[in-house]
User: What shape does this take?
Amino acid sequence: MKLFQFKKTLAFILSLCMLISMFAVVSVSAVNNFSLKANSNLSISVNGTDKIICGISESTTVAELLVNFENSESITVCKNDVVLDEDKKVGTGTSVVFDDDIAYVVIEGDTDGNGRIDSTDYLRLKSALLSQITLEGAYYLAADADKDGSLSSSDYLRLKSHFLGDFNLYE
Assistant: This one.
């Protein structure tokens, strides 16, 4: 009787593992809908339910972003549902669209989405630390300058020091 229960439990666990691995393959292949060139310094990952593109420096234009993709002619770059021209700068929260797939740009330190790090960014982070505003999604990830998964005074000091020229977030 115990052997039968053991086999039944083992069969259930194996079935569960197969089901989980199928979802893992689906999520990995979903990230790969955006084909980065081999020499690209960018990375695409999943954060919650959103795909994010990291490794983009401040003041990057749409054209400079698109050269990182194999299928750039099929990609549309939008901000607030407006398609951006190739000479426009991308910022945190900019959507990169390929077919029905969307990934969001995260520029380290760019908490307001204007594509550069300025006083507004570290003041927004300060407001978030004081619970005056809430940073979510790509904006939260952009504010987490030390990449420890939480917002802290360390992130604030890094952003402010970058803005003042005493520290480089991208090195």
Remarks:
- The two ends are 62 Å apart (CA to CA).
- The CA atoms of residues 40 and 68 lie 5 Å apart.
